Amino acid sequence: MKEKIIYPIHRNKLIQLSNKYGTPLYIYDSSKIEEQYIKMKNAFSCINNLIINYACKANTNLNILKFLQKLGSGLDTVSIQEVELGLIAGFHPKKIIFTPNCVSIKEIKKAVDFGVRINLDNLSILEQFGEYFSDYSVGIRINPHIMAGGNSKISVGHIDSKFGISHYQIPHIKRILKNTGLKIEGIHMHTGSDISDIKSFLEGAKILFRIAMDLPDIIDYIDFGSGFKVPYTKNDIKTDLVCLSNYITEKFKSFCKDYGNEVTLIFEPGKFLVSESGYFLVHVNVIKHTTSTVFAGVDSGFNHFLRPMFYDAYHCIENISNPNGRLRFYTIVGYICESDTFGLNRKVTEIREGDILCIKNAGAYCFSMSSNYNSRYRPSEVMIINGKDFLIRKRETMQDLLRNVIEIKM
After folding, report:
1. Could you tell me the CATH number of the domain that includes residue 141?
2. Which residue ranges of the chain lie beneath pLDDT 50?
3. With b meaning 16 or more CB within 10 Å and e meaning fewer, what string describes 136-161?
4. Annotated catalytic residue: which of 56, 102, 243, 337?
5. Is residue 409 included in any domain, yes or no?
6. Residue 337 appears among annotated catalytic residues
């Protein structure tokens, strides 16, 4: 697949969309999603059996799922609701992998009914599954005891993580397989998000290759998860895909030769595919001066965009209404009745009341983590396809807040 050169959406277009749809507003550029997908395919083009599964928890808008399905992507899901969304979006059940954590056997039974692939990540559920569905092959999520990721809250492969079965517990897995007759079709790991140091992938790969050699069944796939870091500033570091693919390709081919079987290699990028496609537009309500700080208060908050408050995540913020203004320092805050900060002491072109600010890298874990806190409506979403804008989610109204409320007489 030929890699395209994609240019960011021009600020005039963003302002036009803010006027057309109002703010706060999420905008997704489909051409950037396609560019990232092709980049991933090209990086590992030397591997014959390669599957890219979009980790849809990053952004589950049905139109984004449909777009990636048409590109040829599979789907990584972590809840039965994500499984159902994937089926509605047109993914074949066998192109959906369900990798839940701490769910009941009832939810996993539903996944069996849907016919999707399943990765199990604890011994108790593995044993229960073997008793109910010994003829339904599953994957095993391994905890490789590797600390990786850009934040402790998104590091999920370390020794104290709730995710995965410890690689030291392989004898327990073998005992369950022997006792239940259950078959293993693949092994999986995911160590964290925002991984810039590829050593964590390489260490994990060694562990998975060793486990595969030690399992009694011939597996169909090895799933390396994802966690590729994308840049949040012009000079920010990112995962070196070329370096990673060179190593993984060599080691994976060597493993397949020693294993005696052409195993499928799976990756599960989420943020890598959609983060940079997203823009979040907000309207400046007020400029407030205190004794030490100039605040720019906007018509949104962490109810719409949680990452800065939850992960201390940095997102570039630009004043697209006044791009050539004098540079000044602002703390950009939201309207939630709590500490609510998008950017602390940021150098931005002069912000005036009524200006439109653009927050970058808003495609992943932004709308999907939004809420109705303070009884605020969730914003609308727009998708750009072939230069045309399409409303893909309406802004909520009071009817949406009250839809499931049952009013009782008092």
Report:
1. 3.20.20.10
2. 1-6, 148-157
3. bbbbbbbbbbbebbbeeebbbbbeeb
4. 337
5. no
6. yes
